[in-house]
Design brief:
eleven-stranded mixed β-sheet, mainly beta, 4 domains, disordered N terminus, rod-shaped, Immunoglobulin-like
Length: 548
């Protein structure tokens, strides 16, 4: 800016003919430019005889003053580079210059009053965007002049003013290359008040009193972005929070906040909400607060918030809306589970053509329940310590009851109970010396409100085996009919049998009933007796004959 200031200082009250010729060579035809209105045109040699602005067509510093608004890349710190048309790029800022010169001849001592500079920065979006610059003064003829500059891109964009960027340079109070700040009102209909000796609106006639006004703009390429937030409060509270502690029957207020954080308008914004089990919506309580409803208003068909959603309209960049509704915490018995319940409410927002976003708010509700009594026998494991020693271990689950003991019932291979053991611990060391296969069933005993309860399961059943010692045999002891294990060397077939079936008990055999006799049976008996007598007589006779 120092070079520009020095250029102002060098500007004479009158210019030579040579300078005028040079200026004429750089004049751009007015028909190619957008300025207005079309007042009389003056030259350096023949300035105006009244207060008028920017009508000298051969200004050696700026050329045709009617083209008084120009632009360049803000990163270009050289004196040149000013354009009427510029192609913009993302991430860059652009410097706009407005030249202000009271063309009244210095000899007239005419001062413009209430002189203002303003710029119209549109909020439209497109591939071509124009800014209009204005200079006004109460006693100028015409009292307002304007000029346009044009911004272009291959993609849609809009322009935004860079706050705090407006400055003025002149040979008066804004001399020395530092410049002075101007009000951001420069981009409003009021404009920014300027002046030579201060921002008092007074601009004398002649080159030495000319002013250069600068401000920056930047392009914004369409960015569709938004946020959605969900929070909650207990009825009567003054502030919303993300999570609240509540109890059955409490009334709650929920709030959904939508904000357009992009740089283009969002249309047909749809809000939806999903209440968790344990929370009930109060029908007809949906309200909206936005720029059109500053005091809040009930939403027609607001109950659709929990089904198809509600359309809250269109929102310009940076604008927002609040949607609220009322709900009630369900009764204790209707809450999902005993103890703390985190009831999560989910809200979503989706502008037209954009994706959906969600946020949640929580209500933590404690459900009081009666203690649930639980006792189970889960598993039985058997660990072999030695040939005859074993460890039984029982796992069990006990809730709201008191453990008393575990009873182990041991049976042999025939299903006969051979032992019963009780342990007040979860483990028991057990000894069995008789070889064979065995099963064991564990039963857990607990106390519930002073009463004993027992429980077992298939998981609490196991098996183990006591193997024979080398040289031992299993035999049937004939005298006792018991199966025993003895040393093979002690086997005596008169005392033992290797056939174990010999130890099986056999029921006594009942003799068949003798037949009853009748008459025929008596005759047979008589005949038999007669035969016997005859045989005896024959024997005696035979002996007598032999003796003779």
């Amino acid at each position: 800016m120092s070079k520009l200031t020095s250029l102002i200082r060098r500007a004479p009250k009158r210019f030579s003919g040579a300078i005028a010729i040079l200026a004429a060579a750089i004049i751009v035809p007015a028909v190619a430019l957008a300025w207005g209105p079309d007042p009389p045109v003056y030259t350096v040699a023949n300035p105006a005889d009244h207060i008028t602005f920017n009508s000298i067509k051969d200004n050696p510093n700026v050329g045709d003053e009617r083209n008084f608004v120009v632009v360049k890349d803000a990163a270009n710190t050289n004196d040149g580079g000013w354009q009427d048309n510029i192609t913009v790029q993302p991430g860059k800022e652009y410097l706009v210059r407005v030249y202000v010169h009271n063309n009244a001849a210095s000899s007239l001592n005419l001062t413009a009053i209430n002189t203002r500079v303003m710029a119209s920065v549109p909020n439209t979006t497109g591939k071509n965007v124009s800014i209009s610059g204005f200079v006004t003064a109460d006693n100028a003829t015409p009292n307002k002049i304007w000029d346009d500059i044009h911004f272009n891109s291959g993609s849609d964009f809009n322009l935004t003013y860079v706050p705090g960027s407006a400055e003025i340079y002149n040979n008066g109070y804004a001399a020395g290359g530092a410049g002075k700040s101007l009000s951001d009102n420069i981009v409003t209909s009021n404009g920014a008040l300027i002046g030579y000796n201060g921002p008092d609106g007074k601009v004398p006639g002649c080159f030495q009193y000319a002013n250069y006004v600068y401000f920056k703009v930047k392009p914004q390429f369409p960015k569709e972005e938004f946020t959605v937030a969900k929070d909650v409060r207990k009825d009567g509270a003054t502030s919303f929070v993300e999570s609240v502690d509540a109890k059955a029957g409490d009334k709650l207020d929920y709030r959904i906040t939508y904000k357009n954080t992009g740089n283009v308008q969002a249309n047909n914004v749809i809000l939806k909400d999903k209440l968790p089990a344990g929370i009930s919506y109060v029908p007809g309580s949906v309200k909206i607060l936005n720029a059109n409803n500053l005091g809040g208003a009930y939403v027609k068909d607001g109950d659709n918030l929990f089904s198809s959603g509600i359309n809250i309209g269109a929102y310009a960049a940076g604008s927002n809306a609040y949607v609220t509704f009322n709900a009630t915490v369900n009764k204790n018995d209707d809450l999902p589970k005993c103890g703390p319940n985190t009831l999560v409410n989910t809200a979503s927002a989706q502008p037209a053509g954009q994706g959906s976003k969600e946020d949640t708010a929580n209500a933590v509700v404690d459900k009081t329940c009666k203690p649930v009594v639980k006792y189970t026998c889960d598993t039985l494991s058997i660990k072999v310590i030695s040939r005859t020693e074993f460890q039984f271990s029982t796992k069990y689950t006990i809730e709201n009851a008191t453990f008393k003991n575990v009873v182990y019932v041991i049976k042999d291979a025939n299903g006969k109970v051979v032992d019963t053991k009780t342990s007040t611990n979860s483990t028991l060391n057990y000894t069995q010396t008789t070889a064979g296969k065995y099963t064991v069933q564990a039963t857990v005993t607990v106390s519930v409100n002073g009463q004993d309860k027992t429980v077992t399961s298939n998981g609490c059943k196991g098996a183990f085996e006591v193997p024979k010692t080398p040289g031992d045999i299993t035999v049937c002891e004939l005298a006792t009919k018991k199966i025993v294990t003895i040393k093979e060397s002690a086997f005596d077939s008169s005392k033992y049998s290797k056939n174990l079936d010999d130890c099986k008990e056999t029921p006594p055999v009942t003799p068949p009933e003798l037949p009853k006799t009748g008459m025929g049976e008596n005759i047979v008996a008589i005949l038999g007796l007669g035969a016997l007598i005859a045989s005896a007589a024959y024997y005696i006779a035979s002996r007598r004959a032999l003796n003779q």
